[in-house]
Automatic annotation (TrEMBL), chain A:
Top-level taxonomic group: Bacteria
Native source organism of the sequence: Dactylosporangium siamense
PANTHER family according to UniProt: OXIDOREDUCTASE (PTHR42659:SF1), XANTHINE DEHYDROGENASE SUBUNIT C-RELATED (PTHR42659)
Domain FAD-binding PCMH-type intervals: 1-221
Record-linked InterPro entries: CO_DH_flav_C, CO_DH_flav_C_dom_sf, Diverse_Substr_Oxidored, FAD-bd_PCMH, FAD-bd_PCMH-like_sf, FAD-bd_PCMH_sub1, FAD-bd_PCMH_sub2, Mopterin_DH_FAD-bd
Protein name: Oxidoreductase
PROSITE patterns hit by this protein: FAD_PCMH (PS51387)
SMART domains from the UniProt entry: CO_deh_flav_C (SM01092)
Organism lineage: Bacteria, Bacillati, Actinomycetota, Actinomycetes, Micromonosporales
Keywords in alphabetical order: Oxidoreductase
GO MF annotation, one: oxidoreductase activity
TrEMBL record, chain B:
Record lineage: Bacteria, Bacillati, Actinomycetota, Actinomycetes, Micromonosporales
Keyword set includes Oxidoreductase: yes
Bias-annotated ranges (Low complexity): 1-21
Name under which the protein is recorded: Xanthine dehydrogenase
Stretches for region Disordered: 1-37
Single GO molecular function: iron ion binding
InterPro entries noted in UniProt: Ald_Oxase/Xan_DH_a/b, Ald_Oxase/Xan_DH_a/b_sf, Ald_Oxase/xanthine_DH-like, AldOxase/xan_DH_MoCoBD1, AldOxase/xan_DH_MoCoBD2, AldOxase/xan_DH_Mopterin-bd_sf
PANTHER family to which the protein is assigned, alphabetical: ALDEHYDE OXIDASE 1-RELATED, XANTHINE DEHYDROGENASE
């Protein structure tokens, strides 16, 4: 490991100023960046430990929303009783991630910045446009069973590994930041991005910015939301595919629906086409299937990840059907 | 090196006891008594030192540099920048490494030539004052490689496949009785199917690691190995030293599963590095490095052909196995060998073919041969049962041979039928009267979104014994020190050997100390092939009985002040054993479920019933069976090393990508064993139990998945990706 300096952040604004100036890296839970430093994937000269900053509060907002400090541990948020009532999909997504030890250590802000687990990204002897722009993508013709079927580019087929991010996309969460220019905020949909021809950028987070909080806006439909994660290993594995869903069915008709998919793209994939197809339609299996097919029409599976198309289709139908039956 | 210090529940002989009293006989037998591992406390508190945990003053640290091409030559190694790095003491590569004398394993001829035979081969070693400096130095070594087109993918139609003379463990590659094609032609029911198992890696908790130092011309190493005798002999050969000048200590080993069954490059490199820098050197491979350097189980492609008459009697068994080896040396997984004795049939053919690819050399991994072979054979038997509408338990019982069906020699003992019957009843497959109550129809049991099914498979593993030596010493205060160069790789070997010693001495176990894991004790065989307890235990038994006899005969039952010592060697006894077919057998039952929504496969229940001779220690034996079955489950559902054919390396090269079962995957595992008496084995009447638990598990799971869904999976692991498209 290359030697690096370590500092504890005294205050958020000075940490942001230092990072913006030096290109150093923030350290929160360290559950991803430390691994990547050991592998030589990233080699910051300076780590600024922000865990001492007062960013751990979980606030239940009077309008029905929540504000979650960026340094809240995944396990603390997952067990928050207000979250479990207002945003059950978020709690389920958190609990499905990693292991108990990692959830205790990992933070909400850090979770949004975790890097892809693409095998070619984490191996510095291999070509990866995300790690070294212009180097080429070894995954496209290599081992890519876990990689993207939607929104990928010639340059990059990586997936975002986060479960939490899928649930946040479902509820249109906002990410609060501190930048050199002062506080800022962006929608989770603006925050994550597709790889395009800039796969080295996972997110649209401004350089040097510190995530200070995640805001879950008041979302009545989210009280009827769920998250289903699929993987071969029962625990401690990233998703082969996942779906977050919220559904409001009255008199057999879909009043409102939200769907987001995980492990299929470079970002959490909000299934707007499927949502549009279902809104106002009878809540039937046929319609669920048609909606999934409309969303997945854009899928471009690679040689070995085509199983994700029927998987996501089945998940969409199965989860929506389960929620419909539960609402009767 | 003794490890018996902590036995809080056992009384020790009182200090200062009057000497030269008569040796006290044991009040009870120790063998058969459930007993926790002697070193359990040290293990769980982290006090048990592994190979690089031993504090050695002045140690330096080594880090390997690996090839990045699968085939080619090292053109040049520029060490100048590495040598300029702070703390770097030296860099070894083939241009400056000392010459080694060949001992027959080309994988150990490290840094001897420019040739690159696989990606990840060690091409240089950096030695420095700290692990960090060694690693930083390794990053600065510039290796110029000239890569050539490589060939890294096993295919059933590979033009370079050939039939070797022998397969692993010395069996002939081919065996034929009668005419399989004629038998198949005459059969009323036939199966002809091809099964595939992936490359797998052992992933022992302790990486391959060594501490080495030279002292007055002698080489001392602490090595994480299953075989310190073999390592010491190999090092003596490589470095042209008298055998007594090499000492290998492996007091505690953090798992091996076959990958530490012989010396690996780490121990040779550490010794070379220690000589280069003139101080002790520690070398621990990283998890990622292990995937190239420490061996793996070859992928296999196996065709099984079965033909049965209308009464379910097999007329023909054909089993053709294909596997890979490296360009360096030939290792042939003996996948078809179990088909030579599992079932009776007049027409039989088993073959093995292998191809040398530009890949690392495969090695033993947990039941080499039987593990992948049983997936194929025991799946095919299940397919035959479905095709013929026979109960799969009954079908196996109906094809039970009276003697070894190919060699026509008697079994020393064989209780497969009893294991199947006992297991079927315990599992609820049959009722108390033996009537089958399981509904044979596939894909008819639903539990919400899940389809549920049950499956069965048979298990077997050879009961091997290899010569070993042991030393037993009595002291005047009635202590008995027993030494045998066993390796305790987490099995409980030292615990059961102490039990065996106590009984052979006929003294209370508290009076016996056991020492293992040091080549200086004297030659003993590997902790492999499930033969440790039988082989070491025999030597221990012989030494202890001779010692007690000598005390009684020469000293009137009193140990003289100077003590008495006896060394025993079992070479002759083992050579002169009568000819028998010696195997352990078992039956495994599984209940599995498959989600119709996601294709996810989960195992609800596993039951194993084994007949494996006398069980020395029910506590450690249960752990061995459960551990084997867990590994079998893991292989059935998860384990898969994916090779990138463009680069020739395993891209799943760490535990984030190479998934082994976690606790949440492991269901209720029930284990039972029959009280099997076999007088033709060894003085203790034991068969090995280390590996049989993994044999048949994958087939039991696959057969349960078929019963649940109607889908026959012939490629391991059974994952959702291959289920999802087939479920309705």
């Amino acid at each position: 490991m290359k030697p690096f300096a370590y500092q504890r952040a005294e205050a958020a604004d000075s940490a942001v100023a230092t990072i913006s100036r030096t290109g150093a890296a923030y350290l929160a839970g360290g559950t991803n960046i430390v691994d990547l430093m050991k592998l030589g994937v990233t080699a910051p000269d300076l780590l600024i430990d922000v865990t001492g900053l007062p960013l751990r509060d979980i606030e239940a907002l009077p309008d029905g929303g929540m504000r979650v400090g960026a340094l809240t541990a995944n396990s603390d948020l997952a067990t928050d009783p207000v979250l479990r009532t207002r945003f059950p999909a978020v709690a389920l997504a958190l609990l499905s991630g990693a292991s108990a030890q990692l959830r205790n250590r990992a933070t909400i802000g850090g979770n949004l910045l975790q890097r892809t687990r693409c095998r070619y990204f984490v191996d510095v002897t291999k070509s990866c446009n995300k790690r070294r722009p212009g180097a080429g993508c070894a995954a496209r013709e290599g081992e890519h069973t876990d990689l993207a079927i939607l929104g990928a580019s010639e340059q990059c087929v990586a997936t975002n590994p986060s479960d939490l991010a899928v649930a946040l996309a479902l509820v249109d969460a906002r990410v609060e930041l501190l930048t050199e220019g002062g506080p800022a905020s962006m929608s989770v949909h603006e925050f994550f991005r597709l790889p395009g021809d800039r796969p080295e950028r996972d997110t649209n987070l401004p350089p040097g910015a510190l995530i200070t909080a995640v805001v879950l806006p008041a979302t009545p439909i989210a009280r009827m939301s769920t998250y289903r994660k699929v993987r071969d290993r029962s625990s401690f594995a990233f998703a082969a595919g996942s779906v977050a869903a919220a559904l409001d069915v009255r008199d057999g008709v879909v009043q409102d629906v939200r769907l987001a998919y995980g492990a299929v793209a470079h970002r959490p994939w909000r299934a707007y086409a499927a949502e549009r197809s279902l809104r106002g339609a009878p809540a039937t299996v046929d319609n669920f299937e048609r909606a999934a097919d409309e969303e997945l029409a854009a899928a471009k599976p690679l040689r070995d990840n085509g199983y994700k198309v029927p998987l996501i289709r089945n998940l969409t139908v199965g989860v929506l059907r389960g929620m419909t039956e539960a609402s009767w | 090196m003794t490890s018996t210090q902590r036995q809080p529940t056992q009384s020790q002989p009182a200090q200062g006891q009057p000497t030269q009293s008569r040796v006290q006989d044991a009040a009870q037998r120790s063998v058969g008594t459930a007993s926790p591992r002697i070193e359990a406390w040290d293990k769980v508190t982290g006090r048990a030192p592994y190979a690089v945990d031993h504090p050695v003053p002045g140690a330096a640290y080594a880090w390997v540099v690996q090839s990045t091409v699968a085939r080619g030559v090292v053109v040049d190694v520029d060490t100048s920048r590495a040598l300029a790095e702070d703390g770097v003491l030296g860099v070894l590569w083939h241009g400056n490494a000392q010459r080694l004398e060949s001992v027959g394993d080309p994988e150990l001829m490290v840094l001897q030539s420019a040739r690159i035979a696989y990606r990840g081969q060690v091409v240089a070693v950096v030695v420095a004052t700290s692990p960090e400096a060694a690693r930083a130095g390794a990053d600065l070594v510039r290796v110029r490689e000239d890569g050539m087109t490589s060939d890294t993918v096993l295919r059933i139609d590979h033009p370079a496949l050939y039939q070797p003379v022998q397969v692993n463990a010395g069996y002939p590659a081919r065996s034929a009785i009668g005419d399989v094609d004629a038998g198949l032609a005459a059969a009323a029911v036939r199966v002809d199917a091809t099964y595939r198992t992936p490359a797998e890696h052992h992933c022992a908790m302790e990486p391959h690691a060594t501490t080495a130092f030279w002292e007055r011309g002698c080489l001392v190493v602490f090595d994480g190995t299953q075989a310190s005798t073999a390592v010491s002999e190999t090092l003596a050969g490589l470095f042209e030293l008298p055998p007594q000048s090499v000492r290998v200590i492996n007091e505690h080993v953090g798992g091996g599963f076959g990958s530490k069954g012989g010396p690996k490059p780490n121990v040779v490199l550490a010794a070379m590095a220690a000589r280069l820098v003139g101080r002790p050197v520690k070398l621990a491979l990283t998890r990622q490095q292990l995937f190239a350097v420490a061996g793996y189980r070859t992928p296999t492609i196996q065709r099984v052909r079965l033909g049965a008459a209308t009464n379910g009697r097999l007329l023909a068994i054909g089993h053709d196995a294909v596997s890979q080896t490296s360009q360096l040396s030939e290792f042939v997984e003996q996948s078809a060998v179990l088909s030579r004795h599992m079932y009776a049939a007049p027409n039989r053919l088993t073959t093995h073919r292998v191809v040398a690819l530009d890949v690392p050399t495969p090695v033993w991994m947990r039941a080499p041969g039987e593990c992948p072979g049983s997936f194929a054979l025991e799946s095919a038997i299940d397919e035959l049962a479905s095709a013929g509408n026979w109960d799969p338990v009954r079908l196996r019982i109906d094809n039970e041979p009276a003697v070894h069906p190919e060699e026509q020699i008697p079994f020393s003992s064989r209780h497969l039928v009893q294991c199947l019957q006992e297991g079927a009843e315990r599992f609820g497959w049959t009722d108390a009267s033996g009537r089958v109550v399981r509904d044979p129809r596939p894909a008819v049991r639903r539990d919400g979104e899940w389809l549920v099914g049950t499956g069965v498979a048979a298990s077997t593993y050879p009961s091997l014994t290899w010569p070993s030596t042991a030393l037993a010493r009595a002291t005047a205060d009635q202590r008995f020190d027993v030494e045998v160069n066993a390796a305790d790789i987490g099995t409980g070997a030292r615990t059961v050997l102490r039990q065996i010693a106590a009984d052979a001495l006929d003294v209370p176990i508290a009076y016996v100390e056991i020492t293992v894991g040091d080549s200086a004790i004297g030659p003993a065989t590997v902790a492999g092939g499930s033969m440790g307890t039988a082989s070491w235990g025999w030597a221990v038994t012989k030494a202890c009985r001779l010692l007690r006899e000598r005390i009684e005969r020469d000293h009137g039952g009193r140990v003289p002040t100077g003590g008495v010592a006896v060394r025993a060697d079992t070479t002759l006894e083992i050579r002169d054993r009568p000819e028998f077919s010696r195997h352990a057998y078992g039956a495994q039952f599984c209940q599995a479920r498959v989600s119709t929504m996601t294709g996810e496969v989960r195992v609800d229940r596993l039951l194993g019933v084994f007949a494996a001779g006398r069980i020395v220690n029910p506590t450690t034996a249960r752990s061995q069976f459960i551990g084997g079955m867990t590994m079998g489950l893991s292989g059935a559902l998860l384990e898969r090393s994916v090779l990138d054919s463009r680069t020739g390396d395993f891209v799943t090269g760490d535990l984030a990508a190479y998934h082994v079962a976690v606790s949440a995957d492991v269901p209720r595992i029930e284990v039972a064993w029959l009280d099997e008496q076999d007088p033709h084995l060894n003085p203790m009447g034991v068969k090995g139990i280390g590996e049989i638990g993994i044999v048949g598990t994958a087939a039991a799971v696959a057969n349960a998945v078929h019963h649940a869904t109607g889908i026959r999976v012939r490629d391991l692991p059974i994952g959702l990706a291959q289920m999802i498209g087939k479920l309705h």
